[in-house]
Design a protein that fits this description.
globular, mainly alpha, binds heme C
C-alpha cells in the first residue's frame, strides 16, 4: 500500500512538472500563442504594429504598458477614454499567466519575478530564441526592431511562430 502511494505521488509530481513547464496543454492548440479575438484591440493596438497576442507578456507588463500610453516608446498611443479599461481587461484576462499555451508559459517563466518588461523583445526567452537572427539582421535598414514580428514570422498575426513559417529577408526559409 505504501509503495502504491509513492508511485502515485511520483506520477502526480511528474504531471505537475510537465504542466508547469508548459508541455501539457488542455486542448493542444496548434499555434504558439492564443490568437487575438478582440476586434477593438486588433484595431486600436494594431494601428501602428502587429496587434501583439496578450499571451506574450505577463499581466504586470500589460498594466505598465497601458498606464503609459501617452508616452509609448516615443509615441502617443492614448486611447479613447472608454476603451482603455476594456482593452486592459482583455489583455489581463489573456495574459501569459492565464493563457494555457506552451510558449506563454516559456515566456512567463523566463522572466524574473522582480522584473516587469514592457517590451516582448526584452523577455529572456525571446532574447535566447533570437540571439542568432539578431546578429544576422543587425544594421539592416528594413528591420528596425525585433518587435516587428511579422517581418520574419509569416503567420505572426495568427499567433503562430513555428520555425517552418519563418522567412528572414527574402530567404526561402530560415535555415537556407
Ligand atoms: C501611435 C502608434 C501606436 C499605437 C496606436 C500603439 N503602439 Fe505599441 N508601439 C508603438 C511604437 C512606435 C513602438 C516601438 C517600436 C520599436 O521601437 O520597436 C511600440 C511598441 C510596443 C510594444 C513593445 C514591442 C517590443 O517588444 O519591442 C508593445 C508591447 C506595444 N507597443 C503594445 C501596444 C498596445 C497594447 C497598444 C494598444 C493599447 C499599442 N501598442 C498601440 C506605436 C504604437
Ligand atoms: C528578424 C526576424 C525576426 C523577428 C523580427 C522576430 N523573430 Fe521570432 N524568430 C526568428 C527566427 C529566425 C527564429 C528561430 C530561431 C532559431 O531557431 O534559431 C525565431 C523564433 C521565434 C520563436 C520560437 C519558435 C520556435 O518554434 O522555436 C518565437 C515564439 C518567436 N520567434 C516569436 C517572435 C515574436 C513574438 C516576435 C515579435 C515580438 C518575433 N519573434 C520577431 C526571427 C524573427
Amino acid at each position: 500500500m505504501v509503495m502504491k502511494n509513492r508511485i502515485w505521488a511520483m506520477v502526480a509530481g511528474i504531471a505537475w512538472l510537465l504542466v508547469n513547464s508548459g508541455y501539457v496543454l488542455a486542448g493542444a492548440p496548434n499555434t504558439d500563442f492564443a490568437a487575438v479575438t478582440n476586434i477593438k484591440y486588433a484595431k486600436e493596438c494594431g494601428a501602428c504594429h502587429l496587434a501583439y497576442q496578450p499571451g506574450l507578456l505577463p499581466e504586470r507588463s500589460w498594466r505598465k504598458v497601458m498606464e503609459n500610453l501617452h508616452d509609448h516608446f516615443g509615441d502617443n498611443a492614448e486611447l479613447p477614454t472608454a476603451d482603455q479599461p476594456v482593452l486592459l481587461e482583455y489583455l489581463v484576462n489573456n495574459s501569459a499567466e492565464r493563457a494555457n499555451y506552451k510558449r506563454s508559459a516559456q515566456m512567463l517563466h523566463s522572466i524574473r519575478k522582480v522584473d516587469t518588461p514592457v517590451r516582448i523583445s526584452q523577455v529572456p526567452y525571446f532574447i535566447r530564441e533570437h540571439r542568432e537572427v539578431a546578429n544576422r539582421v543587425r544594421g539592416n535598414e528594413k528591420i528596425k526592431s525585433l518587435g516587428q514580428c511579422e517581418l520574419c514570422h509569416q503567420k505572426a498575426n495568427e499567433g503562430s511562430y513555428a520555425e517552418n513559417e519563418i522567412r528572414v529577408l527574402g530567404a526561402e526559409s530560415w535555415n537556407d
